[in-house]
UniProtKB/TrEMBL annotation:
This is Zinc-ribbon domain-containing protein. The chain crosses the membrane at residues 73-93. Keywords: Membrane, Transmembrane, Transmembrane helix. The keyword Transmembrane applies. Residues 31-51, 147-171 are annotated as: Disordered. Residues 149-162 have a biased composition (Low complexity).
């Protein structure tokens, strides 16, 4: 159904137009307005003219004018009753229309009050959420300040760490150079150690040979004597200073003594 005033479409069951607030007639209003619309038509009806006939002079009948006046009175009374009923119907229709309009307004006001109450609840909820959000925002701002403080401390620590890292890198370079020098010295010492080990091996071999020679010398000094061709008849040890080592014979001590040679008075023929 469309509004008769603005032409907007109105859903079924609505009591007034949402666009222009025109009250819509209900079934009771339609019934009550029907007599109101019919009442003016009754008021506007012209009285039926009464045809008056001339009295006939027939005998003694004289009651015709009385009946005509009665009809006129009845018509007038009927018209007055119809007008009164139409007026009452019109008043009753206006009362019903006004009551329906007031009911519609009351329903609209109730709906608006409910809507306002819902809006107030929403506002209260949003206010609480806003307060909670502000508290969360304050807590986050505090957290941000703490993080900024920690960041400043971290930056200071980072600067100190960079300085320490530079110092450590310098020390590392120095230690690396010292390590390289130590490696060079180690290599030189290893070479020197190898040379010393070779020399030690040589000395050990020489000592072994010397020990062998010493054993041989001890054996020679203990059991072998030398007789020179000098006509003295003495036999000498190898270490005797009178042993000239020019021309001699080597004997065992017993063999020399058995051949008549005697010990040298200088060395005594003993080592």
């Amino acid at each position: 159904m469309n509004c008769i005033k603005c032409g907007k479409e109105i859903p079924d069951g609505e009591l007034f137009c949402v666009e222009c607030s025109l009250n819509l007639p209900t079934d009771r209003q339609a019934v009550s307005e029907a007599p109101r619309s019919a009442a003016p038509q009754r008021r506007m009806q012209k009285p039926v003219p009464v045809r008056r006939t001339a009295p006939q002079m027939v005998g003694p009948q004289v009651q015709a004018p009385r009946r005509t006046g009665l009809r006129t009175a009845l018509v007038i009374v009927s018209l007055l009753l119809a007008a009164s009923l139409g007026f009452l119907a019109w008043q009753y229709g206006n009362i019903l229309v006004e009551r329906n309009r007031l009911r519609t307004r009351a329903a609209a006001l109730t709906a608006e009050e409910n809507h306002v109450a819902a809006l107030e609840e929403q506002i209260e909820t949003v206010t609480k959420e806003l307060e909670e959000t502000e508290q969360m925002l304050a807590a986050r701002n505090e957290t941000i300040r703490e993080l900024e403080s920690q960041l400043s401390g971290s930056q200071s620590s980072q600067s100190q760490s960079e300085y320490d890292l530079t110092t450590a890198q310098s020390q590392l370079d120095q230690l690396t150079e010292e390590n390289r020098q130590l490696l060079t010295m180690t290599e030189d010492l290893e070479k020197e150690l190898e040379a010393l080990e070779d020399e030690r091996d040589t000395l050990e071999n020489a000592l072994q040979q010397a020990e062998t020679y010493r054993e041989k010398a001890d054996f020679m000094d203990s059991y072998v004597v030398f007789v020179e061709d000098d006509g003295t008849g003495y036999y000498h040890t190898y270490s005797c200073r009178n042993f000239l080592r020019s021309k001699f014979w080597a004997y065992s001590r017993r063999l020399a003594e058995s051949n008549g040679y005697t010990p040298c008075p200088v060395c005594g023929g003993k080592p």
